[in-house]
Design a protein that fits this description.
Strand 13 and strand 14 form a beta hairpin. The two termini are 15 Å apart. The strands form 2 sheets. The chain has an 8-stranded mixed sheet with strand order 5-4-3-2-1-6-8-7, with helices on both faces. Strands 11-10-9-12-14-13 form a 6-stranded mixed sheet, with helices on both faces. It contains 15 helices and 14 strands. It is of the alpha/beta class and 396 residues long. It folds into 2 domains: 145 residues, ATPase, nucleotide binding domain (Nucleotidyltransferase, domain 5); 181 residues, ATPase, nucleotide binding domain (Nucleotidyltransferase, domain 5, 2-Layer Sandwich), CATH 3.30.420.40. Helix 1 crosses helix 3.
Length: 396
């Protein structure tokens, strides 16, 4: 069975064509800079790479190009679009409506649209990807996998806010959590690797967006992101945790509108606000060269992770493994070192040589004879979406 996985962003579409149940990735790639100058389409098939600059004015054109390449004689993967039996879509916010993967119908699309205000940077583009895929892959079952679903196991004391009860009952204002597809994938990998039925794992997803999850016996019981994907850790352009009084001050004393404050906290803060750069590789390079702002930003980033890590160990009353994943978590030995420094009391101690090794495989980087495993596990949200889509189709 061939399943096309689509992750539709504001100006990009990531995709993979996966043969299931073998989990064989037949093709992968990305359409970048949709609607902008110098739009690109990148594709990798059997070790061969296509990297072209094209005019891609909108998401429909981008998906048509993806389909055209996959169907072309030169690539030879598909004879017609009907060979794709399912299209699995990553959808960021499912609210309280979705605790599991679902087949997309008009009601599902309507609920995704209702949640635009909770994930304005993501859900509108996720829905656009669904609508376009329905046109191009008419025979395929369209399936939604929600980032929030994994966190629906959080207990009430974890997901509730200490505000009047009516806001939960009438408006469903609560913590939902995000990056669930990634946290589910790597925590299951860690549990299998540890070989334990009962386990206490902290999964740390560090990319442009960042989050941390306490996973006890395979279930999410606490998570750093909440009602929307803004709070918690310091991110590429998002502030993470901030005193609410700062927001009131910006609006009431400095005259910023709510829209301006939202833009500041979502698009102009985090590592970008601290340094002028959102790419951690550039920040690390500048820090090596002595840039004080970049040095402080790295310390702040790691300090916030360390605080949450300690809190989640307390929540679970122990820990078996710390997992680093996603672009920064997998590749930045600097951030991993800063996070794990001076954590020996909790049994967390890094081996510098193991930490410095670059690898695309699951690996241990803790010091020898330490009880707590420190694991680097490459995430693969596309494979996880394919797994969930395949399992759902088998139940229909």
């Amino acid at each position: 069975m061939k399943i096309l996985i689509i992750n539709s962003g504001s100006s990009s579409i990531k995709f993979q064509l996966i043969e299931m149940p073998q989990k064989n990735v037949l093709a992968s790639g990305m359409v970048e800079r949709i609607g902008l100058d110098q739009s690109k389409i990148k594709l990798s098939v059997s070790g061969e790479r296509i990297d072209e600059i094209r005019d891609i004015p909108n998401h429909e054109t981008g998906l048509q190009m993806i389909s055209g390449i996959l169907l072309s004689d030169s690539v030879g993967l598909l004879k017609d679009a009907g060979e794709i039996e399912a299209v699995g879509h990553r959808v960021v916010h499912g609210g309280s409506s979705f605790s599991e993967t679902v087949v997309i119908d008009e009601e599902v699309k309507s609920k995704i649209k209702e949640l635009f205000s909770l994930a304005p940077l993501h859900n509108p583009h996720n829905l656009k990807g669904i609508e376009v895929a329905e046109k191009i892959f008419e025979k395929a079952v369209q399936i939604a996998v929600f980032d929030t679903a994994f966190h629906q196991t959080m207990p009430e004391e974890a997901f509730r806010y200490a505000i009047p009860d009516r806001f939960l009952k009438e408006e469903q204002i609560r913590a939902y959590g995000f990056h669930g597809t990634s946290h589910k994938y790597v925590s299951e990998k860690a549990i299998h690797y540890l070989g334990r039925e009962r386990s206490k794992i902290v999964s740390i997803h560090l990319g442009n967006g960042c989050s941390i999850t306490a996973v006890k016996d395979g279930k999410s019981i606490e998570h750093s992101l909440g009602f929307g994907p803004m709070n918690g850790l310091v991110m590429g352009t998002r502030s993470g945790d901030i005193d609410q009084s700062v927001i009131f001050f910006l609006m009431e004393e400095l005259g910023y509108s709510s829209g301006q404050v939202k833009k500041i906290l979502q698009e102009e803060s985090g590592m970008q606000g601290l340094t002028g750069y959102s790419d951690l590789r550039e920040i690390e390079l500048k820090a090596e060269q002595g840039d004080k702002n970049c040095l402080m930003a790295l310390k702040m980033n790691a300090y916030r992770v360390k605080k949450y890590l300690g809190a989640y160990i307390a929540v679970m009353n122990g820990i078996d493994a710390v997992v680093f994943t996603a672009g920064i978590g997998e590749n930045s030995d600097v951030i991993r070192k800063l996070v794990c420094d001076e954590m020996e009391y909790l049994g967390i101690k890094l081996d510098p040589e193991k930490n410095a090794v670059r690898s695309s495989d699951l690996r241990e980087i803790q010091a020898e004879n330490e009880k707590v495993k420190i694991l680097v596990i490459p995430t693969n949200e596309e494979i996880e979406i394919a797994n969930q889509s395949y399992n759902l189709l088998n139940r229909l």
